[in-house]
Amino acid sequence: MASETSVDYNRIKELKEFDDTKAGVKGLFDAGIVSIPKMFIRPSEELVDELNSCQTKIEVPTIDLSNIQDDSRRKEIVDEIRIASEEWGFFQVINHGIPLSVLDEMIDGVRLFNEQDLELKKELYSRDSTKKVRFNSNFDLYASQTADWRDTLTLSFLDSDPDPNEMPAVCRKSTLEYIKYTRKLGETLFEFLSEALGLQADHLGSIGCAKGCSMVSHYYPACPQPELTLGVRKHADPGLLTVLLQNEISGLQVLHGGQWFDVHPIRGALVVNIGDLLQIISNDKFKSVKHRATANLVGPRISVPCFFSGHASLLDKPFSPIKELTSEANPPRYKEVVLREYIARFISSSLDKKPLIDYYKL
After folding, report:
1. pTM of this structure
2. Beta-carbon neighbour count of residue 106 at 10 Å?
3. What's the mean pLDDT when you consider all of the chain?
């Protein structure tokens, strides 16, 4: 008997028809569907595993960045960041210096972009990863085992400051303002992380960690069958550091000790997590951990991660464990990583595939 995959269900055809609408997941939501298409449904073994996983009420660490000019408080913050980066790979920051109005306007801008006239969004719809500004649903749509329930606006500025003329008018002002503040916060966080590694405060900044960032704005419409799909599959971030803004709807989960933990939104807070590259150069002192986003009956959930992954001028520079963090007793655990090759490997793969960091382990 022929299988459903080969006869009754043509996955590529379904993916192509979905992609060709250029309307994304929101197009399905707007059509009023009550059952999600098969392309979004997770494998049955995953769904069974989900029934056996338990939720625990422990929260990821929240770190208050106020009074950083005070030497004793700064030492406390560095210590808190060190513990969170070693044990969780995730933490939330409050009193980080970005005004609440800037955060709210960024979220509103993402909502306005996704809820504007479809024809305007279609102008930016693309799967060309060389485009600095592009809109699509699932960057790995054709390579993944299942599609995720989200649409994404990507803004990639590894080699320059954003050109306002390239950005969607509806969210241009709010995005430029948010990027300005987030870059400054990134510089501060890399200082703290340097000190947490026992290095000079400017160490990570001096090797280019705080330069160059890509921002993606995820829009997760309400889902009629959230238990069957995900907003973002389990993955670790490939870059150095991620700073994430989310609206009031929960969905982000972190894998810790074999269990999924919710990262509940805190008004005015930002979520920070260690990426694979920072785990590599810290020689495993800091942990890049798996995380995901669930789908929800209510929506839209909105999240805006800013990925610090190194400036374009560093594309041909090798990254490897920092010399001061290795010794005869603690030798390098990773081989050299050339940023250009590393980014190309990520873009060409799927979130389902072998973790990127595993290619570089010694």
Report:
1. 0.93
2. 25
3. 91
